[in-house]
Design a protein that fits this description.
It is a single chain. The protein has about 190 residues and is mainly alpha-helical. The protein is built from eight helices and no strands. It has helices at about 1-25, 30-40, 45-55, 75-85, 100-115, 120-130, 130-140, 155-180. Helix 2 (about 30-40) packs parallel to helix 5 (about 100-115), helix 3 packs across helix 8 and helix 6 (about 120-130) packs across helix 7. The termini are far apart.
Length: about 190
């Protein structure tokens, strides 16, 4: 009986290890020192989720529309953010640097969250579709019954984006909690 119990325990440990490895491969945790330094009022799990949705942690990716880097910032948005952040002599090529990209993307998420009175879903919708679109949706009584929240997100791409980020955020919240419990701080990798 003891050999059978030991064998079952061994198999369970192997399965748990394989599951953890699979989750870490599907949901990598990278750049935590940068994220934690620039998160502000945004939970780090949200920033990880946005990076996963935007670039899957590929720092040199560019969208067909021209968005760049880990958090997929448009060059014009990066220039505007540089001004808000008080960055003198901003070099547009610096957006490819994970440190700069995450700092600016996190700043932008914080700015949007404040702009939309703490509503992270509105901030995420604006991050994806633009503030002008979100503002026009809020002004449309067929889309927003109270002018402060969206009853629906009319663009399927943006609706799917907000949902995908929320799913990613939930997974990352668990990963970060487990990492803290295991004494790894908030991260598996500090690239």
């Amino acid at each position: 009986m003891k050999k059978w119990l030991i064998s079952i325990c061994f198999i369970l440990v192997l399965l748990a290890g394989a599951f953890i490895m699979a989750v870490n491969m599907r949901f990598p945790v990278r750049y935590m020192h940068i994220i934690e330094a620039h998160a502000g009022e945004i939970d780090p799990s949200v920033i990880l989720a946005v990076i996963m949705a935007e670039s899957s942690f590929r720092p040199n990716v560019q969208s067909p529309a021209g968005a760049q880097g880990l958090m997929q910032l448009m060059p014009t948005t990066a220039e505007w953010l540089a001004g808000l952040m008080g960055k003198q002599d901003f070099d547009p090529d610096s957006i490819w640097d994970p440190q700069v990209n995450i700092a600016m993307g996190s700043f932008y998420l914080n700015w949007l969250k404040r702009r939309y009175q703490g509503d992270i879903n509105l901030a995420l919708a604006a991050y994806n579709a633009g503030q002008g679109r979100v503002n026009s949706w809020l002004a449309d009584p067929e889309i927003s019954s109270d002018g402060r929240t969206l009853d629906i997100i009319p663009f399927p791409e943006t609706r799917n984006y907000v949902e995908r980020v929320e799913i990613n955020r939930r997974v990352y919240a668990v990963i970060l909690r487990v990492n803290r419990m295991l004494g790894r701080g908030g991260a598996v990798s500090y690239e």
